[in-house]
User: What shape does this take?
Amino acid sequence: MILIDQYLLSPPRLFLLRPAPHHHPSWSPSSRNHILKEAYRRNFPVRWAHSTSTMADAHEDNTGSLKEQLAKVFEISLKVTVPDEPEVVPLIAPCSKKETGDYQCNNAMSLWSKIKGKGTEFRGPQPVGQAIMRNLPASDMIESCSVAGPGFINVKLSTKWIAKSIQKMLTDGIDTWAPKLSVKRAIVDFSSPNIAKEMHVGHLRSTIIGDTLARMLEYSKVDVLRRNHVGDWGTQFGMLIEYLFEKFPDGEVNDQDIGELEVFYKASKQRFDGDAEFKERAQQAVVSLQGGEEKYRKAWAQICEISRKGFEKVYQHLGVHLEEKGESFYNPYIPETLDLLKQKGLIEESEGAQVIFIEGKRYLL
Assistant: This one.
């Protein structure tokens, strides 16, 4: 449990702020934030003025998690302690026993194994740990340090620094706590269901994990490309389209006509597996579709649209936003890609297919 501050926890009295009458019944997030700030200013007027000026002058690097901020402090000490060992990465981890501290630096033992026998002044990992602790620069976030065992440096965080950080979050907004990442743009490929098939738990899991990762990156001001790589291309569309033509020869079809797309898919698959003549037509339909024939493209688009409506209901319920870039998106780029691979001599013919063999590897894993 973190003790914030006696003054903050036990003010003499609190002023409650009510919004002034407004023509619009709903508040925007910015107006709610303003009201919170104003309530805080009225409750703690003296502390507000003092802490704001102090933080403005501090110019501390408060970006990143607690672990990352501690690593920056220890990185300075490590460079001073072992200047002849370049690119030593601070090994910061939470303390396993909370009574010893909040975090610990575990570099001493690994450093000792590197520097012993090189004429070093140190005589073991504990003296290395002691030196790292002595060379730590002044930091408001550290309350105390101690060395235990073979050089483990235990760190207790300053409760005043924690209180000041939380106060800053309350006044400036939680966005100020977002870690600043080196990456500016990221692609998150998630969900990726198959057209004409229902989502299963694997797709839902991918959707939720992907959306979580995307939100975390967006919180850190990363430009996230939320890609939904749906399975909307391939041989299965030949049998779907051909079965669609059988059921609706005039080509006029809507959602209600097809009904449950999953049932429609299973029926077409049954025809494909049990009727050689239908299978041949379905395979030819794939060629016609990929060749861009309008009749087949229209049927394909109808099937895809019905599936998208079903997927969108799930996404709306989960509050997930995606940008579809399905398998069909890349179809126009395939000829140019194949030409490039041929020019480089990477493609070989094998059993009627164009393939790329990886030397020394039976499976590309």
